[in-house]
Design brief:
- The structure is a single chain.
- The protein is an all-alpha fold.
- It has a domain at 41-225.
- It has helices at 41-64, 67-93, 101-113, 119-131, 146-150, 160-166, 172-175, 178-185, 187-207, 211-233, 254-259, 266-271, 286-296, 308-324, and strands at residues 98-99, 300-301.
- It has a two-stranded antiparallel ribbon.
- It is globular, with a radius of gyration of 21 Å.
- It starts with 40 loop residues before the first helix and ends in a 14-residue tail after the last helix.
- Bound molecules: stearoyl-coenzyme A and zinc ion (2 copies).
- One zinc ion binds at residues 129, 237, 250, 266, 270.
- Its cofactor is Fe(2+).
- It is found in: Membrane.
- It is a multi-pass membrane protein.
- Belongs to the fatty acid desaturase type 1 family.
């Protein structure tokens, strides 16, 4: 950073209303000859099996399962989704609002139901993604193509830059939360129980569903929620508009927002990551509706957002700097001449 004459990055936990500033590292983005891809065959096999069971789950939904099981699958999909959007993403990775302990408990259970790794691991990867977006240090760097950013990154070893740069990410605020430490420590017990065993056993016990129907519909629910989430990393970094910042890959994608319960407004989100709405407008944003409901009973509070004036002011500064500046602006001038 010194050689490039760049200002040093802020350290320490995220302050209120502090942006996650993107560090531009030299954009030698992914040279395939540099390091051979280390495929993790265990994950490849697991995901192939899960997808096959999920396909069978589609058959069950239409032909053999009870309608209660299908309805239950849809309900679990949304609960898990909110665990990711309202919990791992907006509460823990971005600290965009605060939550009282009953809401935190609900969120940690829902986040485990979604099984996308512990909230701590999820947030670490996500903070690294924001800070080093579209560089080798981004775990699901969209410049490496649709498949890699969608699910390929979970099928191979991470790029060394992810680990090197990721070390600098402050995670102390999350380790300070006993509930998250507990979930992280016992994840390999809690996750199978909450994401796979209970969702299968409950329909068998309560409405006499068969094991095969209950199991495969639940796997289908899980696979669908994974793809909805992964679409934010792939499609919402590729196809859509960039009203807030045309210099990044993240885009506004309404289709993704529908499945990812409001997380497809990704150009806005990367520009203003601390906003609990993760969008400028309230449309197609079920997560926002649910957080607002919890805010009404006081379980969600200190909701951080961005005023219209601030959006206009930031745009004005950024556009002017990009158009006429000499590249030395402490935030928007970084790395432009690379
Ligand atoms: C899944 C996650 O699907 C999906 C996340 C999506 C994020 C979406 C973001 C969009 C936002 C909006 C949300 C929308 C939601 C919508 C919902 C709708 C339903 N920093 O990882 P390891 C170091 S998970 C710093 O094993 P490998 C660290 O020292 C699916 N350091 O790397 C670490 O040790 P430790 C289920 C880092 O060996 C060590 O490296 N889960 C960082 O390269 C080893 O870490 C799976 O399938 C970092 N970021 O293996 C599991 N990362 O942890 C898949 C690593 O002890 N994962 N280090 O500190 C794996 O098997 C492995 O991670 C691997 C890489 C094979 C992919
Ligand atoms: Zn992103
Ligand atoms: Zn984010």
């Amino acid at each position: 950073r010194e050689k490039q004459n760049l200002p040093s990055l802020p350290t320490g936990p995220l302050e209120e209303n502090e942006d996650v500033i993107t560090e531009k590292i030299p954009d030698n983005c992914y040279d395939p000859d540099d390091r051979p891809l280390q495929i993790v065959w265990r994950n490849v096999v697991i995901f192939i099996v899960l997808h096959l069971v999920g396909l069978y789950g589609i058959y069950c939904c239409f032909l053999t399962a009870k309608w209660t099981t299908v309805f239950y699958g849809v309900l679990l999909y949304h609960l898990g989704a909110f665990g990711i959007t309202g919990g791992a993403h907006r509460l823990w990775a971005h600290r965009s609002y605060k939550a009282k302990w009953p809401l935190k408990l609900i969120l940690v259970i829902c986040q485990t139901l979604a099984h996308q790794n512990s909230a701590i691991e999820w947030s670490r990867d996500h903070r690294v993604h924001h800070k080093f977006q579209e560089t080798d240090a981004d775990p699901h760097n969209a410049k490496r193509g649709f498949f890699f950013s969608h699910m390929g990154w979970l099928l191979c070893k991470k790029h060394q830059e992810v680990k090197n740069k990721g070390k600098g990410i402050d995670m102390s605020d999350l380790y300070a939360e006993p509930l998250l430490r507990l979930q992280h420590k016992y994840y390999m017990i809690l996750m199978p129980l909450i994401c796979f065993i209970l969702p299968t056993v409950i329909p068998m016990m309560l409405w006499d569903e068969t094991f095969l129907n209950a199991y495969s519909v639940n796997i289908l629910r899980y696979i669908c929620s994974l793809h909805a989430t992964w679409l934010v990393n792939s499609a919402a970094h590729m196809w859509g508009s960039k009203p807030y910042d045309k210099y990044i890959m993240a885009v506004e994608n309404r289709f993704v927002s529908m499945f990812a319960i409001g997380e497809g407004w990704h150009n806005y989100h990367h520009t203003f990551p601390w906003d609990y709405k993760a969008a400028e407008f309230g449309r197609i944003n079920l997560s926002l509706f649910i957080i607002n409901c919890f805010a009404k009973i006081g379980w969600a509070y200190d909701l951080k957002t961005v005023s219209k004036e601030m959006i206009q002011k930031r745009d004005l500064i950024r556009n002017r700097v990009k158009r006429t500046g000499d590249g030395t602006h402490p935030i928007w001038g970084w790395g432009d001449k690379d």
